[in-house]
Amino acid sequence: MGIRKLALFFSFAIVTCALLAASFAPIAAEVRSTGPQEILLESEQSIIVGENYTYYLTLVNLDPCDKLLSNDFTCVPSIAVDMIQIDNATNEVLQTISLEHLHFGYQDVDIQYDDITIVSLNVLNIAFFENKAKVEIGYTSTTTAADLIEITSKDDNINAVLGYNNNTTIYINNPSKNDIDVFFSVESAASSSVLTIKWGGSEKSIKTGNERLIVLHQGNNTLTLSFIPREEGHQVLSFFVKVDDKIIGIVLPVLVHPVDDISSDIIFANRASFDDVLNDQKIVGDVKMDSVYLLGFSFILLVMGGVLGFVHTSNGGSFGSIDKEK
After folding, report:
1. Average pLDDT, the chain
2. What's this model's pTM, rounded to 2 decimal places?
3. Which of 77, 82, 92, 95 has the alpha carbon at shortest distance from 47?
4. Are 111 and 118 in contact (CB under 8 A)?
């Protein structure tokens, strides 16, 4: 192998390894900032408000000449703070972490909670005479996309018809920037053991209790769930999505009506197929009756037209009155 070919081979190998490394490298979480926060001595200041927890910062000490940071020639000021985690539901203090010897400028920290991780603390100002300081906190959210997925439905409840195809539209919002593989299942399907789901141009059947893999794209995903109920009465349609170990679902009340209790235009306006309409004796009977009415009306018009034509011919082609000479 020539030197040139060998160089090309190694170049290709290096590029390939770099691409593979990039593909398998973990995606860094987005670092958020609280912005500049002014904290007072011995006074709690809320800095991060989450769904389950609120995080407070308390300034516990201002040191104009920190012994750990200073030396014989310089005097380095510092502050000490307490990071407090409080449960939003109970208002209970769950955890307090002390941070000491914080000098001016940016400092890396690593405080991990259930929903966030504190990654940095930037001391912007220390006001010794006013007993206050100004800091900025950097943090990342440890909430996964599964925690943020939302499932909603077009219908709050479904008025289904016994023995006919009924459907509802389900929306699944994926707030992440990446596609997510999820498993969906239907636990209770309004007495129908087999359902049909349509999404992204695909159509698949699923049995109650089974799982099927689908791909949720970024943003809102629209799914149509179709079923044919076999029993009348109040039932439910339970739709679930499983992401990793988290299960998100929606339960919709379904009222299944017998066919005789609902007018045909409600049944077939937007639920039944054309074949179902043709097979429905009530609609076929209405069409036949309408045809009889139209045929009878057409016959009457034909007879009236013949009579008017005869009169027209008898009067010499004129319907006007003829004045006789006196």
Report:
1. 79
2. 0.45
3. 82
4. yes
